[in-house]
Amino acid sequence: MPYKPSKIPSSPYFGSGPCKKHPGWKASDLQSALIGRSHRAPEGIAQIQRLLDLTREILAVPQDYTIAIVPGSGTGAVETALWNFLGSRPVDIFAWDVFGKLWVTDAIEQLSLPTVQTFVENFGRLPDLTQYAGSHDCVFTFNGTSGGVMVPHLDWIPDDRQGLTICDATSSAFVIPINDWHKLDITCFSWQKGFGGEAAHGMIIVSPRAMQHLTQFQPSWPIPRLFRLTKAGEIIQSIFEAKTINTPSMLCVEDAIQGLDWAVSIGGKKALWQRVKCNFDVIDKWVTNHPDLEHLAIVPESRSKASICFNLTAAYCGGENPGDLITQITTQLADLGVAYDIKNHFLAPSSFRIWCGPTIETADLSILTKWIDWSLEKMRPATAFTN
Fold it and tell me: Does the keyword Cell inner membrane apply (predicted)?
């Protein structure tokens, strides 16, 4: 039995969303937020525009792409994209995690699209992305946190495609660099992952060709007002000019700006990615070399750098239910104030999930591995097989 670690992480927040606030965050720093003021006041519009400008700067978004804040966090952003942009041509949907599979359901059961090709894989595996037909629209998730799998590159998207690509980038924006913006037409994400912002607000980044599509095609279904980007066949330009569809929380806007300012202060996109890679290396090497653990993502090249999912081995479980054992271990660590929310999504296979995003400190992940080692021994079933 290993000794109980004497040191705990400086922060126990290792969940995959909402994620840990950026280093140095303090609630008292939000006193400058425009509380009680209208988001349509000049000061409110200026604050929202600053958030949009910082987003463009850090993500290196091309100047001819437009950016907007939409309701409903990352889910609302993807729904906005599905409801406004799909319907003019067949669509290919690639899914391998919880939310990607929900987009399949929306396309088939809610929008009732006539021609949908689905390429669905089990958790931990990536579909064959080369099956995408460039003449179709395409929906995919860049980084699937519940499957521990990410798209390793965007080379499979043709430059001369006719279709639009809709990318759910909720768990990759500000985490995994996007260097090929010309491959993406509608990119959707929220504030609560990469820089530790608050929930309930989503963002969409729209390419020029997708904006043109909005003026040339009107879906056959009614679009809820919260998702609506056009009116009478015309784009509602104000949405892309720091004037949101509905009222945002200016407290959350200020919090997001401070998170983005932190990202700029450490070196922007490159520095964020460097922190992620260091974090990933700690957990990836630990899991890979651990006798009692195994990665959920089988292929190393597509293994998520931000959200590592892993299982207990069959030998460790010794015939006992792995889900029960994982619950016992994660509950114990949460009760001790060591780690919160490291059990995977309830719709995913029973497994652990550790967020390795840029707001996490590498030293804390190293400490966490020692605590999990200790808990694994403490909870080891009597029936477990040992070498």
Answer: no
